């Protein structure tokens, strides 16, 4: 229960930070991405502010090797830079540049009742569902392939 | 050219630090990464035994504009994109962040804070593409 309250609080604080920083305004995000025009570098400072605290937090967490409640950390284990990582990030960047919205700010914008934010979020969730379905199909396919290959090996 | 009129260094940096604090809180108490696309993606996957904290985080996030509005007025936002553009962008962001295992928060904030080589590559990839797409829309398409 304590963990759920902390997660709720963390989400709330995260959202307030997004609103204060200006990330929930797509025009401001696009002005940051528009390096050739009248460039608004604010979002670089958002990243810098977040990373300055994040860096210390991750260093402390790694040094402890566990959470403050002595539970295990759930850090990403993958270290390979593969096609998925790069193609996915390129596609994400294209969408970000099209509308000036990324997942966190879009959820806050939609929750504030903005129709543009709601349209974006519905499409984004649909995109995530499409990915989920494709991924599950792929897993079933690769299992089938494994089984076929085993059978071939037996013959 | 830097647009000094629109530049908001204090609110940007302070807002960033607050995002960092939220990330630190989630990490140090629950051991989880505050990557929004990953948290929402896990909800969509319906991964068992792992849904409650994700739902709690998202509810907190969605509650933020309401709390803000209760205390004052939300800052103005400007959405320039058409509905078709928003749908295309949303689909690209949804599929892209899941395929690339992260977004601005997961790779850009948490990943760079951890000095993860994967996240550095991902962040450069989406930053450069985002800038490229804005350039194409604003300068290449409109001038032709």
Automatic annotation (TrEMBL), chain A:
InterPro entries: DUF6691 (IPR046513). Pfam families: DUF6691. Keywords: Membrane, Transmembrane, Transmembrane helix. The chain crosses the membrane at residues 41-61, 81-101, 107-131. This is Uncharacterized protein. It comes from Nitrosomonas eutropha. The lineage of its organism: Bacteria, Pseudomonadati, Pseudomonadota, Betaproteobacteria, Nitrosomonadales.
UniProtKB/TrEMBL annotation, chain B:
This is Uncharacterized protein. It is found in: Cell inner membrane. Belongs to the TsuA/YedE (TC 9.B.102) family. Its main location: membrane. InterPro entries: Sulf_transp_TsuA/YedE (IPR007272). The chain crosses the membrane at residues 12-30, 51-71, 83-100, 120-141. Pfam families: Sulf_transp. PANTHER family: INNER MEMBRANE PROTEIN YEDE, SULPHUR TRANSPORT DOMAIN-CONTAINING PROTEIN. The keyword Cell division does not apply.
